Amino acid sequence: MINYILSEKLQKTIVSSNISKSDEISTFIDEILQAGNSKYKLDHSEYIDWIKSPEFMLNQIEGINHFVTKTKNYKRFIFIGMGASTIIPKLMSSNSNFIFLDGSETNIKETLIKDYENSLVFIISKTGKTLETKTMMNQYIQLISDLKKGYKYQENMVAITDHGSELYEFAIENNFMEVFSNLKNTSGRFSPISFSGLIPAAISGIDIKKLLENIIKFKKDLEHNKDTRKKIIILIDTIHKVLTENINIFRLISKNKNDPKIIWGQQMISESLAKNKNFIIPILGEYNNSTKFTGNLDIIFDNKMSQPKASENTNNIVFEDVSPNSKYYGSFVYSIMIIISALSYIENKNPYTQPNVEKTKNYLIDTKLPSYTFNRINNISNIKYASFLFFTKNKNLLSKNINEIKAFMNSINIPIFIDIAPGYLHTTGELHKNKSDAIHFLVHEEFSEKINELNLNDILVKQINAEIKIFSENKSKFVYANSNKLMHITKDIFKGKL
């Protein structure tokens, strides 16, 4: 069951709107619940194994529990992956001994070698080909091999991937402690109810059997219980009506700015709903930030927050305060996937692919930093948002830049999207392509020696070049600039708004 509260303003919008997709949504739910059986008629069948994953994973409980007993003596658990490969383990677990690496962190080398004999390292990659993941895995192996000759590092390594992938074959050949194979027809962001999410959940002490049984019950209720079905249809229909009202900014809000629910939600919207030229911009909101933009929907993942309240005169959807230990957490996560899929279906989109992300990967060629670049900045009167995408490892400088940018952009009332490479390319990278009414700042800073040691420097340089190429091809408004000049350039571009 998914529990939510709609603000008074949003309820009035629903009542006054003549647009309804409730019948279409109901048909979609009937169809999607038939995944894996002969009745299923919807497109994209090659991506929807996530629908039957609760039943599949329930049959894996014994093997998972056996694996968990082998992890009891480990003190640290390191998860290496990009995009959903680290977001999903965060989403489905609660363990202070978990460490997540997606290449955006400082001191990666120190993290990998610290107490390595008591550390269990998970390599997570659907295809097994993700460049950053392979780089960090190979460097971990090299670092540990150099530290202790003859040390059997592979006995402390676990792979979670698709059967037969490059990572699968490597892990088998090198005798990893364990290799888990997910259902193949499941995209990364739709994989919470898979080994990617349930292995870390089980290690955290979460009763995954109860979690799965609750999801299966929810699926049956969705099919046969009118109240359960009506509740989720109303929510989907409401969000669709919001979209028809030209509400562009979806603020995802939680007391905890690092709440995995809002980070996962941002990825789900960015890569599934906000494709092509649609202006659905999911930004991570500030709990006590009263800044409101025209066309704003606040999605709040906590009903115990003192503000904002669902009864305020704003467009708010407040979800029940749920955590991985909650009885209904599984059905909550499962509901979000159904909601995103249904909205994509209504909008005639494939929610499971990310073509521009794949294009970036194909453009990773140039290893030379390009010259600083401006492209199509002549007209800013119609800009709906600005993205600031940082290619830097200097966290102090990054924090200073972000604070200055937030203050300035709030003063001119333009919403901003802030993210850090290489992680953003695998989570929100799809969002920014083909947005003619947006401006994008690609911000570069010299990379540290520590990152060079892990060969992530070359990757980041290649990614800068790839992003510039794609933004240029799409005739997007963008700037490529050094961080030292970022504020000067930003103010200069927006001087007409000062």
Give a concise summary.
The protein has 498 residues and is α/β, with parallel strands linked by helices.
Describe the protein's topology.
Blueprint: E1 4-6, H1 8-16, H2 22-32, H3 53-58, H4 61-69, E2 76-80, H5 84-91, E3 98-101, H6 108-113, E4 119-124, H7 131-147, E5 157-162, H8 166-173, E6 178-182, H9 195-203, H10 208-224, H11 226-244, E7 249-253, H12 260-273, E8 281-284, E9 296-300, E10 316-319, H13 329-346, H14 355-362, E11 373-375, E12 385-391, H15 395-411, E13 416-420, E14 438-444, H16 449-453, H17 456-473, E15 477-482, H18 486-493
Can you walk me through this structure?
The chain has 498 residues and is α/β, with parallel strands linked by helices. The protein folds into three domains: 4-37 and 225-346, Rossmann fold; 51-211, Rossmann fold; 355-497, Rossmann fold, CATH 3.40.50. Helices cover 42% and strands 15% of the residues. The strands form three sheets. It has a five-stranded mixed sheet. Helix 2 (22-32) packs across helix 13 (329-346), helix 10 (208-224) packs across helix 13 (329-346) and helix 11 (226-244) crosses helix 13 (329-346). The longest helix has 19 residues, at 226-244.
